[in-house]
Design brief:
Layout: H1 11-29, E1 51-53, E2 59-61, E3 69-72, H2 74-82, E4 89-92, E5 105-106, H3 115-120, E6 125-129, H4 135-143, E7 148-151, H5 156-167, H6 176-192, E8 201-207, E9 212-214, H7 219-226, E10 230-231, E11 240-242, H8 245-251, E12 255-258, H9 266-270, E13 282-285, H10 298-312
Parallel strand pairs: 3-4, 3-6, 4-5, 6-7, 8-10, 8-12, 12-13
Antiparallel strand pairs: 1-2, 8-9, 9-11
Helix pairs in contact: 5-6
Length: 325
């Protein structure tokens, strides 16, 4: 998917692009069990005793509480750490960069998971990212007798629910409900500061070639909504989608936001979309891996994104209505 001649410094970007494209493909293809609608954030336990429902609609045992956890996505690693259970982690994926995970073993999660490598770590819980896991790999993990939880929060509200559910799976002395409540309170405060009388329209550029934008089915899309911005492309069944420059021009966004490291506004200026004249869009480069990680750390990125949007847009476009105004 990325050229074989790319240097090592682009490896992480290639992985990220592949993950976005995989998510978009799976979402568009379909109505399969692999992408069952995740439970609502406030739905913690299923009707079955001693089980919870993961983000593929599978029942997962909560007993015994896990003491050896393999976390195969950065957001999962951060959720476990947020629960005060960093000491329960025995391995994480290569892209988990939380300081608490620096000394842990690394297990590849994308483009393929190695079930035998995981089994050798003797985990009592394996947590995987929904978009990066095929049904075949999931079946192999289960056939080895591993307890597997699939995590795929699609909104920031879902993160609060994920904290509570993982708190029922992992041995920790922390209070998951209190941690979830603190997360929700901070999220509500950030959202409340960016309620706008008129939502500015935004085009989000996830990749340059091919040109890929943000769909509605992702936590990043929710972040832009929380900042009071309106995505010019909806794509309700996809986390990301390929688009043409012509479609972007027709959508006429007020702001072009690029999450691609090193990407500039040259293309959009040449097309006349971005510029300094009245009526032209502004350009914002916003590269922050935390923006696509549904964990408590994402709130730091959310605050930075909202502030960047406020700074990039003309004053008339970003007046906010605060409580009591």
């Amino acid at each position: 998917m990325c050229p074989s001649s790319e240097r090592a410094r682009l490896a992480a970007a290639c992985t990220r692009l592949g993950a976005w494209l995989l998510g978009a493909t799976l979402a568009v293809v379909g109505a399969s069990a692999a992408h069952a609608t995740p439970p609502k954030a406030h739905t913690v336990a299923s009707s079955a005793a001693d089980t919870i429902t993961d983000d593929r609609g599978r029942l997962v045992r909560t007993v015994p509480r896990a003491k050896r956890v393999v976390a195969l996505a950065p957001h999962i690693t951060e959720l476990v750490i947020a629960l005060g259970a960093a000491n329960r982690l025995v391995a994480v994926d290569p892209h988990s960069d939380a300081p608490e995970a620096a000394s842990l073993a690394r297990v590849a999660a994308y483009p393929a998971v190695d079930p035998e490598r995981i089994l050798a770590l003797s985990p009592d819980l394996v947590m995987v990212w929904g978009d990066g896991l095929s049904q075949t790999t999931l079946a192999r993990l289960e056939a080895l007798g591993l307890r597997v939880f699939v995590s795929r929060p699609l909104t920031l509200d879902d993160v609060g629910g994920a904290i509570e559910r993982l708190g029922m799976l992992i041995a920790t002395t922390a209070d998951p409900v209190a941690i979830s409540r603190q997360f929700r309170e901070r999220l509500s405060a950030i959202t409340g500061r960016h309620v706008r009388s008129t939502e500015p329209s935004v085009f989000v550029q996830l990749w340059e070639t091919p040109l890929i934008t943000l769909g509605s089915r992702s936590v990043m899309a929710d972040a832009f909504k929380r900042c009071g911005a309106r995505n010019v492309f909806s794509f309700p069944d996809a986390g990301s989608q390929r688009v043409s420059p012509e479609a972007v021009m027709l959508a006429a966004p007020q702001l072009v936001v690029s999450t691609v490291s090193g990407a500039g506004d040259t293309r959009w200026r040449q097309l006349g979309l971005v510029g300094d004249r009245p009526g032209q869009a502004r350009f914002l480069s916003f590269v922050d891996p935390l923006l696509e990680r549904p964990s408590p750390r994402m709130l730091d990125s959310l605050e930075r994104l909202c502030a960047a949007i406020d700074s990039a847009l003309p004053q008339a476009a970003h007046r906010t209505r605060r409580s009591g105004d």
